[in-house]
Amino acid sequence: MNENPHAVWAVIEPSGLVVSGHCTCMASSDVACSHVAATLFALDAYVRIQQETSSPPLSNSPRSRRCVEPVCDISYSYPNKRRKTTDENTRHPTPVIPPPTAEEMKQFYDGLVSSGAKSVILSVLPGYCEEFTSST
Q1: Domain span holding position 70
Q2: Which tens digits make up the pLDDT trace of 47-105?
Q3: 24 shares its domain with 86
Q4: Sign of dihedral through CA atoms 84, 85, 86, 89?
Q5: What is the pTM of this model?
Q6: Looking at the domain assignment, is residue 96 inside a domain?
Q7: Residue 23: strand pairing partners
Q8: Smallest Cα–Cα separation from 44: which of 23, 67, 18, 71?
Q9: Where are the alpha helices (DSSP H) in 3-136?
Q10: Which SS3 state, helix, strand or coil, does residue 33 take?
Q11: What is the mean pLDDT of residues 27-37?
């Protein structure tokens, strides 16, 4: 316990979004270390305790907007990228494309045969695979 404590800092937006964090330890030269994580954890716990004991959460605080989701549904992408992806999906919904008909599939396979290329998919399809059998 003779070592001096590491200096830890973090940039946090008023909304609660952590923009950056750093520590003076050796591990923090490339990535955020456990000192930064512990500091953020302690800060979050302090803010939660203060909110619970002093007044109801503010309507725009991150705590009041937080909802519980199954782990499989949580997006771990950066918030700005997640927002952009969500905005793109709401503006341009993905069209529903029906599967091809049997006639369309036959036209596609016939087109592959007439191209002259030996497509691997044809080697497993009845009516097209005979060209791929070896004549030994």
Answers
A1: 8-91
A2: 888 877 776 555 555 555 555 566 666 666 666 655 555 555 556 677 788 999 999 99
A3: yes
A4: positive
A5: 0.38
A6: no
A7: 8
A8: 18
A9: 34-54, 62-65, 79-91, 102-115
A10: coil
A11: 74
- With contact defined as beta carbons under 8 Å apart, do 35 and 8 qualify? yes
Whether 1 maps to a domain, the answer reads: no
pLDDT of residue 17: 82
The amino acid present at 27, given as its one-letter code, is A
Locate 62 and state its tokens: 């991150």
pLDDT computed for residue 101 by the predictor: 93
Contacting residues for 8 by C-beta, under 8 A, at least 6 apart: 21, 22, 23, 24, 35, 36, 39
Q: Is 47 among the domain residues?
A: yes
User: How many structural domains comprise the chain?
Assistant: 2
Kindly tell me if the per-residue pLDDT of 34 is higher than 60: yes
| Three-state DSSP class for residue 8 | strand
User: 46, 21, 20: which is closest to 7 by C-alpha?
Assistant: 21
3-state secondary structure of 37: helix
